[in-house]
Amino acid sequence: MMDAVDLFLRFLQTEKRYSQYTLLAYKTDLLQFDRFIRNNGAGDSIISCTTRQIRSWVISLLDEGMAAKSVNRKTTTLRRFYRFCQQEGLVDKNPAAFLPSIKAPKPLPVFMEEGQMQKLLETPVLPESFPEIRNLMILELLYGTGMRLSELTGLKDFDIDSDRNQIKVTGKRQKERIIPVTPELIGLVQYYIIVRNHTFNGVEGGTLILTDKGHPVYARLVYRVVNEALGTVTSAERRSPHVLRHTYATHLLNRGAELNAIKELLGHASLSATQVYTHTGFEKLKRVYQKAHPRA
């Protein structure tokens, strides 16, 4: 058994160039499984085990409270180990080949409370410098439209329709959609364009949002702007542009927007992707109940 494990680990190290931490994780999983089947009298070693024995191990891990993600990682270790053993002629078939993955619960979206967004976007006086007005507009656009990061960086001047108070975005698979926005947001974009054109003589390709040097904005800059801004109102670890997309959808739902309407605004292909926000809303209702009900 140890010869097979050693051969496998050496293969991962020399052929796959895996790190020492990854190799240790693989070795730990294999030894843990081998110890399980020996203690349960199910076989001599992992070389002679069956699919049923692997399923028993998976069940025992879940019964012990191990997360589905961790269990799936361990079964992936076995699947790769037995595939290697099969190629080396050590086993006739891979007993973990068709073992299904455990369905892990999807984490609820992280979002900001309305008070946090109000505090973040409060601007008694509009900034005058180009970086400051651009950063404010980035935050307002993400929260005011729910668009994705890639959609934001791809915006062109002609995507802004100031007459109809709407913005055209190009989403996944080049699918276009129209998002209604407030006159205030359109006014902010127009003010930004004035400042931008005054700062730079030319604009590359009609790109709406530019860097400090006048080049088209890139994803990392937007992430940095959002991360730093959200850090002033929350201690949450996740402070990405996608948090503002989640916040946009959650606030719409909390204020009575229909799920189908939110689906169209977000550009989701199916309603199932949008339904995660109903769980977020329900969690908020639970907190309200637990805080307000005398017997909660």
Write a concise synopsis of the structure shown:
With 296 residues, the chain is mainly α.
Describe this entry's structure for a reader.
This protein has 296 residues and is mostly helical. The protein has two domains: 2-87, DNA polymerase, domain 1, CATH 1.10.150; 114-292, Intergrase catalytic core (hpI Integrase, Chain A). It is built from 13 helices and three strands, in the order αααααααβββαααααα. The chain has helices at residues 2-14, 20-39, 51-63, 68-87, 114-121, 130-145, 149-153, 183-199, 219-230, 241-254, 259-266, 271-274, 276-292, and strands at 160-161, 166-170, 176-180. A three-stranded antiparallel beta sheet has the order 1-2-3, with no helix packed on it. β2 and β3 (176-180) form a beta hairpin. α6 (130-145) packs antiparallel against α8. The longest helix has 20 residues, at 20-39. The radius of gyration is 26 Å and the shape is elongated. The N and C termini lie far apart (55 Å). The model has no long low-confidence stretch (mean pLDDT 89).
Rg measurement, Å: 26 Å
Tell me the number of strands: 3
Query: How widely separated are the two ends?
Result: 55 Å
Main-sheet strand order equals: 1-2-3
Can you tell me the CATH class of the largest domain?
A: Mainly Alpha
How helical, in percent, are the residues? 55-70%
Give the low-confidence spans: none
